[in-house]
Amino acid sequence: MPVLISVALRARDAIKGMWREAAKFGVVGALAFVVDNGGYNLLVFGLPGGAQGGPMNTYPVLASVLATAAAALFSWIGNRYWTYRHQHRERLTLELVLFLVANGVGLVITAGTVYASRHLLGLDSPLSDNTARIMGWVLATLFRFYAYRRYVFVAS
Prior knowledge:
Elements: H1 2-45, H2 60-83, H3 92-120, H4 126-152
């Protein structure tokens, strides 16, 4: 019976630690979401009430890439120095390269949903763009959480 109790306590501690990590990852991700989607909407649609749209209104996929890249930079700083501050690699360059690869995949996922919405489905409204980006963001976030835990922010 003591073995079962020991296993149960270790499992509880592991889950508790993962929930704390997931909460911090979620806060950084939520703020990065604002940078990403806010930046995208400003680039493509401009300020609310603006008649002409944003400076990249004819380049929505490129705007998605730029906004996601800005959010990725914010995310790396937040995750490295807060979420995974005790687990990051000593070799900053390797960590950054792995982070960029993971976020490159996330960027392709997010931009891919905008591409599919615009070019495959023929949708071009703010609602359809934002719906596509949110769907892409959810998928990319799940991928990034796994990649960060498994490959990027691991003690070396």
